[in-house]
Amino acid sequence: MIEQQPWYKQFWPWFLIILPLCAVIASFATLKIAITNSDSLVATDYYKDGKAINMDLSKVKYAKQIGMQWQLEQHQQLLLTQHGGPEYQAALKVEFYHPTIADKDIKLTVTADANRVYRITLPEVLTGAWEVRLEGFDGKWRIHQRVELKDNVQVWLN
Question: Given CB 3.0 to 4.6 Å as the disulfide criterion, which of 63, 83, 128, 135 pairs with 68?
Fold first, then answer.
C-alpha cells in the first residue's frame, strides 16, 4: 500500500491557494495607489466652478475689447511686456497651470521694473504645454491662453 503524504506537503493545494492570494494582494496594492493618488482634475463643486467660469469669460471679453496684448519671453527668467491696450502699471497676477499635474501650478503677483517689464524668476525653465492667466490687480480684465513653452521662446498673449 502506498502511503499518501499530508495535504500541506503536496504541490497542488499550495498552487491553488497562491493564485487567489496573489489576486487579493494585487487588489490591496491597487486600492492603496488609488487612495494616495487621487485625481486632482475632478471638481468637487462643479456648479460654483461653472459660475466662476462665466465671470472669467466677461473679464476675458473685456480684455479683448480694450485690446490688451502681452508678450511673454522665456530666457533665464520670464519677461512680460505690454504691447497693446491702455497702459497698465499696477501689479499683475500671473498664474501658470499645468494641464495634468496640479502640484506644478504657479501663482504669483509681480510688479514692473522701471522699463515696465514684469520679471519672474523661477527655479527651473518651464517647458511643454501650460495654461497662462494674466489678470490685472484690480480684477477688471483677464487674459487666459494655452501656450507651448520652451527656453528662448516668445509668445503673444491676447
Answer: 63
Strand partners, 119: 79
Provide the 10 A C-beta neighbour count for residue 13. 12
Cβ neighbours of residue 93 closer than 8 Å, sequence gap 6 or more? 107, 108, 109, 133, 134, 135, 136, 137
Q: Give the CA-trace dihedral at 93, 97, 102, 104, to 10 degrees.
A: -80
Q: What is the separation of C-alpha 39 from the centre of its chain, rounded to a whole number of angstroms?
A: 12
Whole-number Å distance between alpha carbons of 139 and 10: 75
Q: Is the Cβ–Cβ distance between 70 and 83 less than 8 Å?
A: yes
Query: Is pTM beyond 0.90 here?
Result: no
What's 138's DSSP letter?
T
pLDDT in tens, 52-90: 666 678 888 999 999 999 999 998 889 999 998 999 989
Burial of 130 (0-12, 13-18, 19+ CB in 10 A): buried
